[in-house]
Amino acid sequence: MTSPRTSTREIVIDPLTRLEGHGRVHMFLDEAGAVDRAYLQIPELRGFEKFAQGRRSEDMPQITSRICGVCPMAHHMASAKTLDALYAVEPPPAARKIRELIYSALMVEDHALHFLFLGGPDFIVGPDAAAAKRNILGVVDLVGLDIGKEVIGVRKQLRDFVAAVTGKAIHPVFGLPGGISRGLTRELQSAAAAAAERAVAFALFALDAFRTTVLGNPAYVDLVTAEAYTHRTYYMGLVDAANRPNFYDGEVRVVDLQGAEFLRFPAAAYLDQVAEHVEPWTYMKFTFLKAVGWRGFTDGADSGVFSLAPLARINAADGMATPRAQEAYEELVATLGGKPVHHTLANHWARLVEMLYAAERMAELAADPEILGPDVRTIPTGIPTEGIGVVEAPRGTLFHHYRTDERKLITSANLIVATQNNAARIALSVDKAARALIRADSVDEGALNQVEMAYRAYDPCFGCATHSLPGTMPLVVEVRDAGGAVVREIRRG
Amino acid sequence: MTATTKTKIGFYWSASCGGCEEAVVDLGVDLLALVELVDVVFWPVALDFKRTDVEALADGELAAAFLNGAVRTSEQAEMVELLRRKAAAVVAFGSCATSGGVPGLANLLERDAILDAVYREAPSVDNDAGTVPRAECRVPEGTLRLPEFDADVRTTTCRAAPRRRH
Ligand code: SF4
Question: Cα separation of B68 and B101, whole Å?
Answer without folding.
Answer: 11
